[in-house]
Every structure is written in C-alpha cells, then in structure tokens.
Amino acid sequence: MNAQELLDKIKELPNKPVDVPTPPAIELVAMVVRWGRHLKQWKATTLADFARVSLSTVERVERAKKVSDEALDRIAQALGHAPGAFTTPSLPIGPDKAAEQHLVEAFGHLEPVAVSPMKTHKAIRDAAKCDAYLIHRPGVPDTHDDHIANLGEWLDLASFILSDIVEEPLSSGRGRRQLYNDILARVSELERRGLTVLSGVMAAPQPGMPDWKVAIVSVTPRLTDPGAPRRRRVLVDRRTVAVTPGWLTDD
C-alpha cells in the first residue's frame, strides 16, 4: 500500500460517534509512521532496531495491519512521540479533520533544505555569510550544550569578521583559512563526542528583506540517528526562521 492509497483510505474512513473515545485509525498510524521514518531517513530495519520490534512488525504497521499496542507504543517512542500516541482512545474528530491535524500540522510548514557534512571551508564560509543561523539538535543530550554553544559563538565571530561592519576584515587568504580551520576544529570536537554535524543554507525571505538567508546547522547523535551522515536534506519548520516583529526596531 503506497502513500496515496493510505491517504485515500483515511478519507474514506466512516465517521464515528463524536461522544465515544477511540484510538487513531490504523491507516492514519501507518501514514504517520511511514512519513516519520522517511523524515529521519531510516530504513525499516533501523526503526525496528530502535523500537525493539521485529522488521515484520514495522512492515505490518506501515501496511495498516493490526499489531499489538505494546509494539505501537515502542514504535511511537522510537519516532519521538509520547507513549500512547498511536493507542490511546480519544474523542473522534472525523477522518478529514484527523488527517489535517496529524499530517498537515505536522508537515505542512516544513521546507527541505539541502545539507552536507560541515567539513569544508566552503561550508563554513556559506554559513558565515548568512543573515542568521539556526542550530537544530533533536535528541542531543544536555551534556553537549557547552560545545554546541561554542560552535555557535565561532559562527557568530566569523559572520561578524567577514561582514562589512568590521573596518579591517580578514583580507588575507591565510587569515580566513585559519578562521575556517578554527571553526572546523569545533566541528571535529563534536564529532569526536559522537555527534554528526550537517549544514546548509535556507532562503527565508522576510517582510522588507527578500534576500534573507539562514544557515541551518543540524547536530544529531550518531547512536540514535545513524543515517545522518548520509542525509542530503533536512526539513526545517519555516516558522522557526521567521524574524520576530519589531526585531529590527530600537524598542
């Protein structure tokens, strides 16, 4: 059953009494699990490993077949959902509204951004030339806070030094190379600590600023996100890169 067939089945689900709590339809669970796995760029075997269920269980869920509530809870938690997300009865809201809330709200604001490992001078230069940066770090333990913050400070420094604000920017190639190497050393430190660092540039036009760009820096643990080094795109919520009203004022 492909994604379109699942969507068609979700639309065809009969309406249930609005005063009777029911668990999510298995077709809706199948779509959320399938999309969630693809967002992480996990193979079905990877999800099975992290959820501690069999591969056949994952395949059954994604085909909208019945599996145990325990297996659904494990899969939900592996994908970052709360326990019971796929099993707890709630008051029905109708298949169309359910699809809108669970799918459109979850994925409707996402935009794919091309990324690659942050291992080159070009990656650092591209990030430093952006108007802002966003560090996305899902599932990264707090023990890495200081090192991630340090990387952010170095990116701030590079952006400032390479801007037109500084009267005497690093004009020599050697000076810039040393700056880039210093930043790459911080990236290497994060990698030694078991993290994957990817970066890319997202066009994020703002009112009055059509050329606004944001550097996207993705930091994820290799232990829980082994597919990250091969990732070529990340999905970014457009709302997270919006400039707050009044940000450019003196108030």
From TrEMBL:
Highest taxon above the source species: Bacteria
SUPFAM superfamilies: lambda repressor-like DNA-binding domains
InterPro entries hit by this protein: Cro/C1-type_HTH, Lambda_DNA-bd_dom_sf
Gene Ontology molecular-function annotations: DNA binding
Name of the molecule in the record: HTH cro/C1-type domain-containing protein
Native species: Mesorhizobium sanjuanii
